[in-house]
């Protein structure tokens, strides 16, 4: 039997953690256990009364990733953990675990991560990721991006580059935002949102071979846990993450919700950046263009989905014909990465 939970979530505020859960069924008492891996979460944390559906507590393992198992007195269990990792040098490094598939299974926690650039990771962050068992860092940035902001080394983690570079349909430039602002060139990116809509459409076919490499890496023994990342962790990484979730059978609505989490995690930092840059903008519309480039917006990823349906008819055909992900390979991937808890 499986606990039928509509929501299981762990949030962190400082050094305290808040665990909450919901269910449409009677759970009875819920016992909560913790541990440093999903398979070894056996340390008792609490047993809650039937009227309780949340719990706040101090971090049981400061500096280490903690997993939780919720067990109902009526049978069944669910594994959970923090979605965003508590790193000092990355606001958008997060675990893709816990999402439910259409057949009722769940993506394993601690196996697949997605992130923004890693240059800001502190020594403590790198130790934290080493303790997570990270084996592979998959970097979608173009070579010049990686040279400007090289990834730090993480012990036992191999680094692989899969460069994906989409230039504006209106303007070919490798300038960063600040250079474009200084040279009054932001307007060359087109109306707000146009550039990233265009980029997501191009990911589908122009870079299918690049994303096929991602699946080859996933299916190669010894590469998990892995993280895929780009610069902001939302566009190239957003599409790559969406493809993995699609291949595992996660519904498109859930995939879109995961994609949009970037906005929640980066909102405060992005607003600070915008506030500091706005006085330097020469056109009123430039602020909207810049904000559109910084955000994850549903229409961007939807543009990629729409392109898949137009070109291939359905997602299954795209995964097999464009990415080489046959039915047997998808089953292999699902057996590796899905669990009943």
Task: Please tell me about this protein's structure.
The protein has 341 residues and is an alpha+beta fold. The protein has a 5-stranded mixed sheet with strand order 8-10-13-11-12. A 4-stranded antiparallel sheet has the order 4-3-6-7, with no helix packed on it. The chain starts with a strand and ends with a strand. The model has no long low-confidence stretch (mean pLDDT 90). The chain has 11 helices and 14 strands.
From the structure provided, what is the oligomeric state, counting identical versus distinct chains? single chain
The biggest beta sheet reads: 5 strands, mixed
What structural class do helix, strand and pairing data support?
Answer: alpha+beta
Strand coverage percent: 15-25%
In helices, the fraction of residues equals 25-40%
> Which strand order does the major sheet show?
8-10-13-11-12
State the separation between the terminal residues, measured CA to CA.
10 Å
Number of helical elements: 11
The topology string of helices and strands comes to EEEEEEEEEEHEHEHHHEHHHHHHE
The total of beta strands comes to: 14
Spans where pLDDT lies below 50 across 5 or more residues: none
Q: Let me know the average pLDDT.
A: 90
Shape estimate: globular
Please state the CA-atom Rg, rounded to the nearest Å.
21 Å
Compact summary:
With 341 residues, the protein is α+β, with helices and mostly antiparallel strands. It has eleven helices and 14 strands.
């Amino acid at each position: 039997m499986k606990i039928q939970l509509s929501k299981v979530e762990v949030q962190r505020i400082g050094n305290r953690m808040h665990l909450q859960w919901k269910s449409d069924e009677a759970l009875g008492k819920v016992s909560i256990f913790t541990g440093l891996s999903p398979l070894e979460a056996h340390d008792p944390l609490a047993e809650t009364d039937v009227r309780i559906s949340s719990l706040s507590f101090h971090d049981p393992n400061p500096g280490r990733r903690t997993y939780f198992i919720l067990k109902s007195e009526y049978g069944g269990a669910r594994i959970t953990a923090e979605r965003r990792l508590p790193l000092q040098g990355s606001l958008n490094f997060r675990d893709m675990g816990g999402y439910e598939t259409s057949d009722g299974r769940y993506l394993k926690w601690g196996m697949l991560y997605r992130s923004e650039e890693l240059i800001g990771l502190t020594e403590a962050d790198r130790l934290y990721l080493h303790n997570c068992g990270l084996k592979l860092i998959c970097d979608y940035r173009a070579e010049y991006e990686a040279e400007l902001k090289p990834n730090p080394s993480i012990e036992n983690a191999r680094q692989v580059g899969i460069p994906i570079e989409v230039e504006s349909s209106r303007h070919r430039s490798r300038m960063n935002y600040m250079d474009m602002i200084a040279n009054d060139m932001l307007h060359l990116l087109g109306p707000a949102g146009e550039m990233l809509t265009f980029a997501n459409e191009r990911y589908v076919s122009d870079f299918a071979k690049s994303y096929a490499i991602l699946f080859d890496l996933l299916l190669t023994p010894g590469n998990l846990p892995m993280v895929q990342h780009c610069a902001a962790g939302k566009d190239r990484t957003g599409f790559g993450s969406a493809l993995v979730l699609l291949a595992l059978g996660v519904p498109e609505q859930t995939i879109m919700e995961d994609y949009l989490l970037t906005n929640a995690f980066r909102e405060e930092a992005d607003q600070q950046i915008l506030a500091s840059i706005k006085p330097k903008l020469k056109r009123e519309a430039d602020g909207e263009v810049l904000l559109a480039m910084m955000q994850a917006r549903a229409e961007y990823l939807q543009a990629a989905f729409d392109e898949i349906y137009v070109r291939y008819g359905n997602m299954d055909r795209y995964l097999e014909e464009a990415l080489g992900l046959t039915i047997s390979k998808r089953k292999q991937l699902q057996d590796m990465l899905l669990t009943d808890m």
